[in-house]
Amino acid sequence: MSEVSLVRCDTYETGVLEAAVRKAVDLMGGMSRFVKPGDRVLIKPNLLSAKAPEKRITTDPSVVRAVTRMVLEAGGKPLIGDSPALEPFRRVAKKCGIAEVAEDLGVELAPLTRPTPVYLPEGAAFRHLEIAAQALDADVVINLPKLKTHCQMLFTLGVKNLFGTIVAQRKAEWHHMAGVDRDTFASLLLDIYLAVGPALTILDGVWAMEGNGPANGSPRRMDLIAAATDAIALDMSICTMLDVPLRSFPLYRVARDRRVGETDPGRIDFKGDSIETFAVPDFEVPALDSMGFLPARFDWFTKRYLVSKPVQEREACKGCGQCGEICPADAIRMEDRKIAFDYHRCIRCYCCQEVCPEDAILFRKGLLVKMLNWVHR
Predict the structure, then answer these.
(1) Buried-most residue among 128, 233, 312, 328 (CB within 10 A)?
(2) How far from chain centre, in Å, is Cα 373?
(3) What is the pTM of this model?
(4) Which whole-number Å values give the CA distances from 247 to 183, 266, 325, in the listed order?
């Protein structure tokens, strides 16, 4: 049985937030359970892009500050790091308020670099990965995800946050290699989670993001700080409190089939505040479709008519070209601020929507999603 601590916190004000984080960690045994004097500790927040904390795209700096202070008190040597897909790490860290935290506390702040080979045991979906050296060299990894929706994988939570240990644009390569099947990509995320092996995951859900996440959704108050040693159990807990059917969450299907982590909410021991007090039945999550329900020879038909596809919001587009730069399938061309999508090549990885700084890429629902919505599935 896995344990997940849930603590109510309605503000990022430093004193109140730090008390909530400490309580969540104390319910899991205290920071000294995870960090010993002299340990090299990687603190891994979500630093997706250079946006102000109020956008609720990144882990709030007050959460990073609280955790870093606790690591220092335990005698650890913290490094705050992540690897944004496109934007320079220093620019992202400064805009998100994380650089100020590192400077105030006198700790190291650095991008995750130096892809290092990792060979996984029998049973892994991908036997060979390349993980940032800082994550592999750390004695302890503390994972600080943001509670957000994700248009490809339904949510960005504990397990998905560790995709940031894949260095920079290699993320797009992995999107391409994993292909269009969400369960295959979820297996990749699970392999990364097992390779990195975070000792503790602390979720920033004081303010969450719903809708068109992970970068262009809407802020939503949740008043939640959560912690767990089993990030899979934590992720399943979020689905439960948001009334999201587990079967619609790709990570659930894969983790259940591979018997990794705790996927049964009935076997999770909740500590702290009751999970029912965080229930949000009208939380807006993306409608996911699948491209793998017809034989491969019908892929052209599936891509063209049945599944959702990216479209440009021309008036919002500034012509920065980040969508074409990140596209792993080379399916985007831009001319005079007009985006041309090659839907035959497009693998629906949602990278373009994820990195667009202007929310200028939307997804037009395919016939399949429209039908599922119509029958209330």
Answers:
(1) 233
(2) 25
(3) 0.84
(4) 11, 15, 33
